[in-house]
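Proteins fold reproducibly. Consider a sample protein:
=====
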Amino acid sequence: MREVITLLVGENSFEVERALQVLTADFAGDRESFDGTELSRSSLPDLLMGTSLFAVKRLVVIKGLSEQALLWTELEQWLPRASDDIHLVLVEPKPDKRTRTYKALQKIADVREYKPWGERDVAQAEQWVKREAEKLGRTLDATFARRLVQRVGVDQWALYNALQKLIVLDDITLATIDDHIEPSPSENVFNVLEAALKGDGVRLQQMIRTLELTEDPYRLFGLLGGQVFQLAALIVTDRSSANVAKDLGAHPFALSKLASFAKKLHKTEVKKMITAFAEADQAMKSSGGDPWLLVERALMKVALIASHQK
């Protein structure tokens, strides 16, 4: 493996950026960064073989070169000729791993893959939050770390930014986390669905008016549909919410909150709810109607169904 070439792969932009920061901080020499989508064919020889008159070592970072298929293909022939005075760093969120160039890099480069976190990585996110808090000079116990992840989700950029807000506070509590940290879209989704499942039409309409100011209706509707599906999954099985969450790859905490509603509903009721969302989905795709009106109509149907269970 040639240590003068590093390949950073994956869509976890936080970890990729942190890796770049470490590489840059530890490098003694000139640092250059290029957008691979804008490079010309004549650029590669200069970048990989050229030397500076004023520095012996160069750190050359190229992002997204694989988006130019021709240059990515030609890169293979230049890799063996890359100057040992150049540390080449390639940043590729979604490279085609079947290409000859990628396979060549696997043999000679330091390949590091950073996958984005999903709902299955909640426990990992909670531990990461605790470690990051310590790096920032604060101690965050497991309860607060869990609440922060529940509030924000598993996006590392959002979690890091939330920590930056919390560490300046005199005291970190569950209340201060809720007061100072904006909820993630998934948290908003559960809150609005919760209002519907409680049959609280007035609160539901108020929440929708607020969400209209910041959220995308299509994204919100997609997340709502996912939670209604999870609710249905809980109703048709005798398994615990934790096991259902594992099967679906869903957030276990979200499933545990839905579980209390699942116990009060019958299969016929949740079937009506699914039908309401299916009709709204069809209307969004075909009618060109106001998406927020369709979201509200579907949720109000859920609220009406739920109110009959009281």
About this structure: The mean pLDDT is 88. The chain has 15 helices and five strands.
